[in-house]
Amino acid sequence: MKTTAIVNSNIALVKYWGKRDEKLILPNNSNISVAYDKLNTITTVEFNLDYSKDIFILDSNEITDGPVFKKTTEHLNIIRQKAGIETRAKVVSKNNFPTAAGLASSASGFSALAFAGSKAAGLNLDQRELSILARLSGSGSASRSLIGGFAEWMKGEKADGSDSYAIQIAKPDYWPEFRIIVAIISEARKKTSSTDGMNLTVKTCPLYQGWLNTIEQDLENVRKGIAEKNFTLIGSTAEFNCLKMHATMITTQPSLIYWMPETLEIIHSVLDWRKQGLEGYFTIDAGPQVKIICLEKDVEEINNKLCSIPSVKKTIICKVGKEAILTDNHLF
Ligand code: 2P0
Fold it and tell me: Whose CA is nearest to atom 4 of ligand 1?
């Protein structure tokens, strides 16, 4: 009854921002991501009659209350119900990158919980069922993280969410030259969670409908860009999509400004470098970090330039990551 999963985090090229169903975590729009090979969560889950309550240890700290604890126990309840057991669990989880700082820790974290938890409970779910379970954990982007490679989370049409799950649209080794550079400028936790932020945007942002109106075009461009390995099409679409999402965040009431001055400094630098012929495109999630996508031929030059910006604390150069795996290297 003890299982350990390793799941890569992911970065969206077409973002998920807003839900059509808050309880089932169903998105207003389909979205496409690529897995990071170097950012991951490792999670061990054990169901054991010796435990009188669920225990959750994240990055060496025991969590006993708050939204993350609530989501974790609720997710364990879903797994218990599916497996027909009532046993309590111990969950130990570690991220190899800063938690809740805009690097999609909830995506890999809840995905790893779904994968390790369902196996530990004796369930043998296929990829579609796992993607749905990961989404129900309370983090929509978790549905994409198990998949690896390039993944599309289809918004689906059904009220019960049975057609809302992620599929792989290109394998991890499909595009060996594809790179994502993560520039870390702050390791502070964000002030407004994605869940709260996107709900506020849907309720109060006057530009939100405009965001939804242009999504299909962005999805089409990114799918085409992947199929044809047209990097310019993917990069320019992803950058534009990110700016549109942030436009809705900024015009939410009260305003959600995830950028810091250093974020803008990198944005301007990437735009300048591109004018000089260095092809990188930025994308930013619900946090201050900037991720730059580029091809192998330019990665060293872009990374050197990034590292020469004083506010960049460190960079992590990633290739396209693989699907989730199970391991016998348990955390306890
Ligand atoms: C994404 N983000 O597509 C977008 C871009 C953040 C900005 O998915 O409410 O933690 O738990 O479903 O999955 C982060 O949102 O939010 C996210 P919930 P989640 O990657």
Answer: 16
